[in-house]
Design a protein that fits this description.
Blueprint: E1 3-6, E2 14-20, H1 28-39, E3 43-47, H2 62-70, H3 74-89, E4 94-104, H4 106-117, E5 122-126, E6 155-158, H5 168-180
Parallel strand pairs: 2-3, 2-4, 4-5, 5-6
Antiparallel strand pairs: 1-3
Length: 184
């Protein structure tokens, strides 16, 4: 699996952050996020989650981009996240016992799911979908609202009140699921 890695100079070991892109792939902004995290002392890895289906970073046609995203199933994304952690664990400069994950939009959803599936210390989800969309092509997969009780670490969810892409009612559904699961 290809990816983009940025890390501080020196032997480490450095805490790690997995950076999860949105639907547009490993473009310049995601790479810059990795570099900025490296300047703060983290080894930052952005896995190329869409590599098997295409490279949305070079695409401009939205339906073409969405075809790549739809060809990247949830189970594969969780396995790729685990593989990224395993690879980092084998690097002498990485300390996966201090691993975090952050992601944007599509990647924000991945953050929630990965924090239930893997051993992260913390996650930061930037406006990821929390509940299944009305027209869902992945009916058999769970969504963050479904795994609230399975979270293994704190997750900071960053959502905009006026964001129509992630409606506030879905944020409230997630808040209720977290409360019901005894999570604060």
């Amino acid at each position: 699996l290809p990816g983009y890695l940025a890390r501080p100079e020196g032997p480490g070991p450095f805490p790690v952050v997995i950076v999860v892109n949105e639907i547009f792939g490993l473009h310049a902004y995601i790479q810059d996020v990795c570099r900025r995290l490296a300047k703060q002392g983290y080894a930052a890895l952005a896995p190329g989650y869409f590599a098997r289906a295409g490279d949305p970073a070079v695409m401009t046609d939205f339906p073409e981009i969405m075809a790549v995203v739809r060809a990247t199933p949830y189970a594969q994304v969780m396995a790729d996240t685990g593989a990224a952690l395993t690879w980092l664990d084998a690097q002498p400069w990485a300390d996966v016992s201090r691993a975090g994950i952050t992601g944007f939009c599509w990647g924000g959803t991945v953050v929630w799911m990965a924090c239930a599936a893997h051993d992260f210390k913390a996650g930061a989800a930037w406006y990821g979908r929390l509940v299944a969309p009305a027209q869902n092509g992945e009916a058999d997969r769970p969504w963050p609202v479904d795994i609230a009780g399975d979270l293994r670490c704190p997750v900071l969810g960053l959502y905009g009140e006026a964001d129509q892409g992630i409606p506030l009612d879905s944020v409230e559904q997630m808040r209720a699921a977290l409360t019901a699961a005894g999570r604060t």
